[in-house]
Design brief:
Structural class: alpha+beta
Distance between the termini: 74 Å
Keywords: Signal
Number of strands: 2
Helix content: 40-55%
Strand order of the largest sheet: 1-2
Oligomer: single chain
Largest sheet: 2 strands, parallel
Radius of gyration: 34 Å
């Protein structure tokens, strides 16, 4: 009987000690709050029980997707199907402005096609050479 009483007393003492430890730990360590502020927005003030850590970003980043969610990789993977299918719209056409060897005036479109291709290549090169904005 005496051993069961001492075991019960030990269990109660252990439960009191376990309940007291988290409360003491919470009182000694203040909470940390991490906030991202943009431009010249003020950083919230810290309180006695809370530490505020602010990360400042430029104003132009306010409405952008976070970097982890931004699409990456070659532009071919991020182009829409409508853009990709434009090339298929002219397959098999003949006549003026088509740059084909069939039909009258087929050669007239070759110069225009080369100009458009050069502009597209230049735009892709400029996009690849532009450093990411900070």
């Amino acid at each position: 009987m005496k051993t069961s009483l001492s075991f019960a007393a030990l269990a109660l003492a252990g439960a009191d000690l376990a309940a007291a430890l988290p409360a003491a730990a919470q009182q000694s360590a203040p909470r940390t709050k991490e906030i991202v502020v943009f431009g010249t927005d003020p950083c919230p003030r810290a309180t006695d029980d809370e530490v505020v850590v602010c990360a400042r970003r430029p104003e132009k980043e306010r409405y952008r997707l976070p970097e982890a969610l931004r699409p990456s990789g070659p532009p071919q993977l991020s182009q829409s199907w409508a853009t990709r299918s434009k090339q298929l719209a002219t397959v098999g056409q003949t006549g003026p402005g088509t740059c084909s060897g069939v039909g009258p005036g087929g050669e007239l479109g070759c110069g225009l096609k080369e100009i458009q291709q050069g502009v597209a290549e230049r735009n892709e090169q400029d996009a690849a050479d532009t450093p990411p904005e900070q």
